[in-house]
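Troubleshooting: if your tokenizer reports a length mismatch, compare your output against this known-good record of 257 residues.
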Amino acid sequence: MTTALITGATAGIGAAFARRLAADGHNLVLVARDTARLREQATELHDRHGIEAEVLTADLSAEKGIRAVEQRLGDTRHPVDLLVNNAGFGNKGRFLEVTMADELTMLKVHCEAVLRLTAAAAGPMRERGRGGVVNVASVAAFVPRGTYGASKAWVVQFTQGAARDMAGSGVRLMALCPGFVRTEFHERAGMGTDNIPGWMWLDADKLVSAALADLARGRTLSIPDPRYKALMGVVKLTPRGLLGGLTSRTGRKYGPR
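Known-good structure output:
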């Protein structure tokens, strides 16, 4: 039986990955900061699907937390076959309204943790000749949206570059770029969502199904909804200056996730 490790596993897209992978018969390593919530989730998934669900409490904004997950990914006695780097957050406010400490924490979680955990997982996977990594980015990667969008753009470029470097190794790497998803993401960041049209909201479970299908096809980039694929096609044709003006009026704080 294969094992998947999911960061940010207790809510939103991470929880949807956990539900789907458990239903498909994968054992899980669930990573988040809230131990009580992790244990409740692990018990529920074990009882419902008969899989083993390991709990790993880790804060990926701290060195100790990243090291703990690196060590688990490097455990060759209990190998991880699929890594889902999902942990992330948003900051409310425009550039210079957000503290530098919060900006740097975002880069720690969205960039440094993703880099280090991908490397920690991909090495043993390459030795075994199989495995997969899904790095959750955002469609915000393709528009000018401050540190959040910039960090997600880094995730996309890094993942696709690493996927090219590991071509033929049996290890698949894919950047997942969802739009607005009905999760706790915006509430945790103190962001309002009243101005977001209803058609832009995605269902987390459907998103995960589409993402896993794209991973199985060997794609290195997944935008798992026809509406957002069409929207990103328009974005590619829109001049950057105009695009920046539109996104600033929409509000940087409403970054998709």
